Amino acid sequence: MQATDYAYAVGKIRALERFLIRREVFEDAAEAPLKDALRLFVESDLYSEELLHVSDSFTLEQVLEAEALKLKNTIRPLILDDLLREALEIKGPGHLVLLAERSSSIFLREFFLQMVDLHNIKTYLRMMLLHEPPEKLRENLTCQGFIPCRELLDCYGKEMAVFLHRLSNVHVHGRLLDYARFLKEGIEKAVNVTSFVSLESALQDLLMRFLRPAKYMSFGPEPVVAYYFAKMNELKLIRMIILAKFNNASAELIEESLHGVYA
Fold first, then answer.
1. Which residues of the chain form CATH 1.10.132.50?
2. 3-state SS string for 147-180
3. Do 117 and 170 form a contact (C-beta atoms < 8 A)?
């Protein structure tokens, strides 16, 4: 299969990308009353007007599940590789490693393994905050990305500076990736305030940062897969904002939870 086989698919994705919601819209929605926030999302032109009638968490989930299904039905025919279609239904870190091993795209291989790294970083911190023994961490680190699991285990129980130093020197195909640069503030808040809000936001920021170069690729499956994850990220943000409003969360807390977008 040649990258040029994706010429039609990438053309369609470029048209769809114009409707992705920009961060400024999410910021406005965070400060707006519920009905106005819902209208901001619907006015993007790609969301069903059913979203305007959401009044509780149950109906919200129904509408967002329908939107996710619509997205998958749009993207699935554009992916010509049976293996990559599996990326529409990720079943966990082991599945990500399998996709990385079998993908012919260097960009997507790196992205899938970076997702595993971020999963393991979050697992490490959760185990640490729960004061779990190293054996428990070992049980939960079932797969590894670019950071070997044994190196995470070596950091466990030591000063946080040791962990952050390890995150700042991740080797990715001959270059260094500094996870700590993007995650340090969120990690410190998770440790000092025992809140994962900032960390979750930073993790999603980083995933969108990893995907963004696909916006400038003219051929291949990368723009198609990147758009899918970008749109799923958008649905997560909509869910977070609306649920926060149902629970009368402050605009400040919602804004702290906002993470990066692909648009």
1. 1-80+221-263
2. CCHHHHHHHCCCCHHHHHHHHCCEEECCEEECHH
3. yes
pLDDT tens digit at each of 263 positions of the chain? 666 789 999 999 999 999 999 999 999 999 999 999 999 999 987 888 999 999 999 999 999 999 999 999 999 999 999 989 999 999 999 999 999 999 999 999 999 999 999 999 999 999 999 999 999 999 999 899 999 999 999 999 999 999 999 999 999 988 899 999 999 999 999 888 878 888 999 999 999 999 999 999 999 999 999 999 999 999 999 999 999 999 988 888 888 888 778 87
170 phi, psi to nearest 5 deg: -105, 125
Is the domain spanning 1-80+221-263 CATH 1.10.132.50? The answer is yes
